[in-house]
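I am writing to request your help with a piece of structural work I have in hand. Here, with my thanks, is the record as I have it:
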Amino acid sequence: MSVITYFPGRGTQMEQTFLKGREEGRAEGQEAGREEGREEGRAQERAQLIVSLLEKRGVPVQSEHRERIMSCTDLETLGGWWDQALIVEESGELFGERHEPQG
């Protein structure tokens, strides 16, 4: 009767396939992490540009609106807010809030 051992480092086909799969998995995970980081960076930059645009246009940005803009990670939403930032008179209008003039 022969005894089969499966100690690591024997170089069996099964072990090589396992190690190759593990390395490929790590590479895929790292690439996914990089892409996620890039997207977060794009969202952060777009949010900062929206706030900057409003400020340069002389539109006061309330602190709760600034926080909402800066915490948004959805690029599509930020794109819509960018378009609105070109024409709004108050920062709340980005989110559909209407300010009634007092008087």
